[in-house]
Amino acid sequence: MTDFRVKKLQKMFHTFFDVNNDGVLEQADFEQTAERFRSVSGWAAGSPEATKTRKVILGLWERLRSKADSDGDGKVTFQEYLAASDAGTTTAFRQDYRDFFFKVIDDTGDGIIDKDEYLRVFKKFGIDAAALGDAFDSFTKNGTVPVNAEYFAQLWKEYFTSNDLNAPGNRFFG
Ligand SMILES: [Ca+2]
Ligand SMILES: [Ca+2]
Ligand SMILES: [Ca+2]
């Protein structure tokens, strides 16, 4: 894997997956992610939507753990994550996460992620708002390319797999 891709995976791993910032992925990170999605969506704690979201997120974690936790200690280090990504065994996890995530971000349910929706969710992960605004303008060509499910899938894939320094998806996480 190229350094460029490793860097992108590293950034994503630390800002987006390892939400409690202890350097490894474990169930607690995904519990917190479910809580962030709950609060950004405005669902009450314990509501059916919140419960369902938590179940989906923990299912995603279980899927990642089963593929990437090679020493079986219940945690996924960046090295383990990288090895699994390199081997291609995290692809199904990534795609399921993507489909779920699209629905979470698309708050209005119109099938398009607009700038407000994007900023609301990504700011929750502590990414700088100005960088996010720039990023959104860049991958939508100043708002002229709508982020529908198809384009979202392209951006997501580019982020994880593209070696092209100019691929719009490189900016997906700010
Ligand atoms: Ca962690
Ligand atoms: Ca492990
Ligand atoms: Ca929308």
UniProtKB/TrEMBL annotation:
It comes from the Eukaryota. Keywords: Calcium. The keyword NADP does not apply. It holds the Pfam family EF-hand_7. InterPro entries: EF-hand-dom_pair (IPR011992), EF_Hand_1_Ca_BS (IPR018247), EF_hand_dom (IPR002048). Residues 93-128 form the EF-hand domain. This is Sarcoplasmic calcium-binding proteins II, V, VI, and VII-like.
